[in-house]
Amino acid sequence: MLRRLLVPLVALVLVLAAAPHAAGADTGFPSVGRNWGAAGPYATAVDVGPVTTLYYPRDIAQSPRRHPVIVWGNGTFAFPVVYRDLLLHWASHGFVVAAANTPQSNLGISMRAGIELLAQRNADPGSVFHGRVDLDRIGASGHSQGGAAAIVVGGDSRVDTVVPIQPGPLADADAVHGPMFILAGQRDSIVWPALVKAFYNDADHIPAIYGEVRGADHFTVVGAPGPFAGPTTAWFRFQLMGDEEARGEFSGPGCRVCADTRTWSDVRRNPLALQVPGL
């Protein structure tokens, strides 16, 4: 009862939080002309550490701007190399991706360790990341068990937005405080779309969008990420880079993902997501 009474009072705050760095933001990242699925303008590099693998713009040390962060959680028995193409894709668009080197990511401990590692590197004058990591703009994502971990980490005050991909069941969307774009696969027989919709339905306190990728099974995102690359990139560019060209993919009456029935078998936006203005 108390929650139902509070929701109308905080709705405006949450709508503004749906694009925490978008409206009026100018982070200076180059436009990609809505080509979210194509490689971005940055050459990339990989740094494999004992706990975290970093995927990042290769010339970040010479960058004139600070780069947002995405922390990543793997599926069960998987490691970052399994998702290398997707993580490098995000890095090519200017993100620093901290991927947990664990096949058991559900608690989100290693994902949080990625944030802490980047905070250390950002503060280290001898690091290529020195002063180039935007720790005020952090997203979380992951696949399967790692998707559940992204929801868990979404309760961390440092994390602005989450993109769980076919998330496993061991998480609670009630703890997430930022906007969520949650993805299912139409033909996923391991994490059924109905299970992903349950997370979406539970996220009535935040702006949330549910997207079900047409024809996708549980492993479509593995290797070449195909239909998952473009929409997730657009979401993170909007939420963490203030890319206004990406706003219309998700917001307003012209919502492009809503109209794209070739890519999506089902798209839903909850009432708070519907309040986010379009262009």
TrEMBL record:
Domain of life: Bacteria
Compartment(s): Periplasm
Signal peptide (residue range): 1-22
EC number: 3.1.1.101
Domain PET hydrolase/cutinase-like: 53-241
Pfam families: PETase
EC primary class: hydrolase
A cellular-component GO term for this protein: periplasmic space
Reaction catalysis annotation: (ethylene terephthalate)(n) + H2O = (ethylene terephthalate)(n-1) + 4-[(2-hydroxyethoxy)carbonyl]benzoate + H(+); a butanoate ester + H2O = an aliphatic alcohol + butanoate + H(+)
Principal location class: periplasm
InterPro entries in UniProt: AB_hydrolase_fold (IPR029058), PET_hydrolase/cutinase-like (IPR041127)
Entry keyword set: Periplasm, Signal
Name the UniProt record assigns to this protein: poly(ethylene terephthalate) hydrolase
